[in-house]
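Minutes, project huddle
Topic: does the predicted pose make sense with AR6 bound?
PN asked that the exact inputs be recorded in the minutes so nobody has to dig through chat later. Recorded below.
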Amino acid sequence: MNRLHIILGDITTIQTDAIVNAANTTLLGGGGVDGAIHRAAGPDLLKECRTLHGCPTGQAKATKAYRLPCRYVIHTPGPIWRGGMQNEDALLASCYQNALRLACELNCQTVAFPSISTGVYHFPLARAARIAIDTILCSLQAHPEIHCVTMVCFDKHTQAAYEQALAEKEQLNG
Ligand code: AR6
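Predicted holo structure (tokens), as shared on screen:
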């Protein structure tokens, strides 16, 4: 059974146990997908985020989802791209790994991710997609309790990059 799906869509509309937010380290909202999630969840999300006192890059913290059609929002600040020598690859992998570990602790069976760090944080898309796909597939093996992960891409260019990364991985594994 295929447990990783790549779709085109708006993550705020996805019915799943948890959605992941590409946050910043303050966890106090921002633009992009973070702004969309806060708008759709309503002001109580920000109230709960204030109690978390931020989150380091690559780590993850969960809140309730309020008006969103999911149970939890898992907030993870991705790395800002600074040329590739500042541990960006490992930090991006940590985001996916820690978000899925937390989802598991919260008994989530279905999780949706946006393309972390490839917007305002300018992580190169193909490189980010390969890291995301590798890390998600690896984490799914470690967590059989998670039934399915959906990568929710906001535009076709992003979707194509994730599909390409998954195809490369499948080719490699025969
Ligand atoms: N659903 C799914 N994906 C979306 C949505 C949506 N509703 N809206 C945007 N995206 P970005 P980052 C895509 O910039 O690079 C925020 O201000 C978007 O097209 O949201 O990790 C935070 O507070 C892109 O493909 O996140 C941080 O300060 C992807 O989500 C900073 O931006 C990520 O783009 C984080 O930057």
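Observations noted during the meeting:
- Helices lie at 32-41, 43-50, 88-105, 125-142, 156-172.
- The first strand starts at residue 4 and ends at 8.
No decisions taken; revisit at the next huddle.
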